[in-house]
Amino acid sequence: MPVTPRQRMENAWNVQPTDRVPFVPAVYEQKAFLIDDTPSNVSRNADLLYRAIMTEHEVYQADALVIGMDVYNIEAEALGATVQFYEGDDTSIPGIGPGGHAITFGEDLGGLKIPNPASDGRMPLMLDVARRLAKMHDTVPVRGALSGPFSLALNIAGPEDVFLGTMLDADYCKALFRFSADVIIEFGKAYLDAGVWTILFDSQASPELFPPDMYEEMVLPETQRIIRALNEAGDPYCPLIIGGNTSDIIDSYMKTGARQILCDFSADWTAYRSACEREKISVRRNISPGPIQNGTPAELEAETRRYLAEAEGMNGFVMGTAVVPFGSPAENIAAIREACHAHVPA
């Protein structure tokens, strides 16, 4: 019988041989482009988001899907943060701007309540889409997007204040990260109840922005707690996505408990391959967004072949992309997919 995408992905996550290298592009705002709409419209309408994800599935034929578009806004918005949406034909990505955060840094956290996923913000919208997609989950893994604890804390209290606070008020920041983790766990459990798995995004914690020793001390424990709680609630995998050059936190990354991590296009592949093979952890490696948006299919095929050659003989390898820029040509993503399909693992 043919191997399903879920079987292929589970083999990769369990660091077992696969029939071919799984292909998982990072498609968020590009979902809206695929149905000729805007990120602001699609991210606020369950019918549009569902249609966009189904179109993504049809067009890109990826081995896994993610429910989400402006993935870092959902939990913070449910806590009271104000998301900037764009009207008309504006294809800008929604975000939390200055003054839109849920609290002022240093404010008593006792005034914040863990959101109810059934009623607060756009959490119900995401869960609605999750329930519609759950019927696919036995064949294609469907994951609900969750913010990581550091990225959520920045969207709750403001990035500049939190970054500075990690040096001047570590106890408050630790309490903020702890609260963020509690919020994420509850939202993650709601996704599991809806019949899909989860995926955790925490790219603001990249060492390009946040010192590795502080990540180890302040963020790693809450990340471990989130992943452990989701595992216990029924999600056996929960990838952790930290973008950027994360080479300086590889050791911490290995300790998060995530069954799949990310080696972004700017990170040290040789170091990642060595560490992941040693620790038996699956890794997704991303192609840079520039060629995806502006390159040719031939260039993308050649780059994919190079990545596949550099992962030859490695179990648990997943071929990915950086976030696909809005408007990127579908034929470029198809070129990456077809190179994966054509490659026969050694």
SSE blueprint and pairings:
Elements: H1 5-13, E1 23-26, H2 30-34, H3 39-42, H4 46-60, E2 65-67, H5 74-78, E3 83-84, E4 95-96, H6 123-133, E5 142-147, H7 149-157, H8 159-168, H9 170-193, E6 197-201, H10 212-233, E7 240-241, H11 250-254, E8 260-263, H12 269-279, E9 282-287, H13 289-294, H14 297-310, E10 317-323, H15 330-342
Parallel strand pairs: 1-10, 2-5, 5-6, 6-7, 8-9, 9-10
Antiparallel strand pairs: 3-4
CATH A-level architecture? Alpha-Beta Barrel
Gross morphology: globular
Quaternary structure classification: single chain
Number of strands: 10
Tell me the fraction of residues in β-strands, as a range.
5-15%
Report what the structure shows.
The chain is an alpha/beta fold and 346 residues long. It has one domain: TIM Barrel (Alpha-Beta Barrel), CATH 3.20.20. The protein is built from 15 helices and ten strands. It has helices at 5-13, 30-34, 39-42, 46-60, 74-78, 123-133, 149-157, 159-168, 170-193, 212-233, 250-254, 269-279, 289-294, 297-310, 330-342; strands spanning 23-26, 65-67, 83-84, 95-96, 142-147, 197-201, 240-241, 260-263, 282-287, 317-323. It has a four-stranded parallel sheet. Strands 2-5-6-7 form a four-stranded parallel sheet. A two-stranded antiparallel ribbon has the order 3-4. Helix 7 (149-157) crosses helix 8.
